[in-house]
User: Fold this.
Amino acid sequence: MSVWEPCVGASDDWHTPAYIFLALGEEFDLDVAAPEAGPRYVPAKAWNFERSLEREWFGFVWMNAPFGGRNGLVPWLDKFMAHGNGIALVPDRTSAPWFQRAACFSDAILFISPRIKFERLDGSVGKSPGSGVALLARGERGVMALRRARHLGLLMRRAP
Assistant:
């Protein structure tokens, strides 16, 4: 779930569309930012919807954290990078210092094109957001998932 720019619609809750997960071909152990009712499409064994930043994460994680205001993603990305095993969906704001720092710690990045149209809680599709998104992988399993999904955009991998 993500919090998007106010121009997208009245709701702040947005879900990643199913085709992203189909392309990744993975089952996640934990969705760290799922809504209280649970994830809609994320094939996850468990989800954490309350105080996720304060709790311990385990296994292969999916993270589509609230984008929030300026630098709102920083604590989520810090925890994701420290965890080191999963895939994070983030806005592709490549000139932002937080994005550049996260890119340095990512094992692979998939820039998705065209822009994802996220879904509202009721299943309706929103307008394209103000920026594109990227998937950041940590760990070899995440890299392999991005390789499977490379037809969605531009895949970049950090040299070993």
